[in-house]
Design goal:
Elements lengths: L4 E2 L5 E2 L4 E6 L15 E7 L8 H10 L4 E2 L2 E6 L5 H20 L13 H21 L7
Helix pairs in contact: 1-2
Length: about 140
């Protein structure tokens, strides 16, 4: 597994900026549950990374603000029993989070008004629905 992490075609995070910690996973595991450190915590210092350009770094820090602790993003993976599979899962999640965080903002919405025909269709449907419901009512005077 290469240590470098490719986020986009222009952004490559060197392996030296990533920190991995291993610990025991919770849950069932049989005989190996007390010996295998398969849980992975992958940490990346988003705010202090020299690799990310300043404009993208500011955008990522703003979008990931709720997940950062002192500018560091930590991903934990423990869904697999194998440490290597958990390392791969943590790396994939980190890449997905960073891609979403540095993506450009969507274009602003252009406000539009409904056309005259659309307004008329809406009113016609309301009238039709009203007539349908009126036809279902019992006439109070005929009981």
């Amino acid at each position: 597994m290469p240590d470098d992490l490719r986020v986009t075609d222009r952004l490559l995070i060197p392996g030296g900026e990533l920190r991995e910690r291993f610990s025991r996973s919770s849950g069932p595991g049989g005989q190996g549950v007390n010996t295998a450190d398969s849980r992975v915590e992958l940490s990346f210092d988003v705010a202090g990374s020299p690799t990310i350009p300043p404009d993208l770094r500011a955008r990522a820090v703003a979008r990931l603000a709720g997940r950062l602790v002192d500018g560091v993003l930590t991903i934990a993976a423990s869904e697999y029993r194998a440490q290597l599979a958990n390392r791969e899962a943590a790396r994939e999640r980190l890449v997905a989070l960073l891609r979403a965080a540095i993506a450009p903002p969507p274009p602003p919405r252009r406000q539009t008004k409904p056309s005259r025909a659309a307004k008329q269709r809406r009113l016609d449907e309301k009238r039709r629905r009203s007539e349908l419901k009126k036809g279902r009512r019992l006439d109070r005077g005929q009981q």
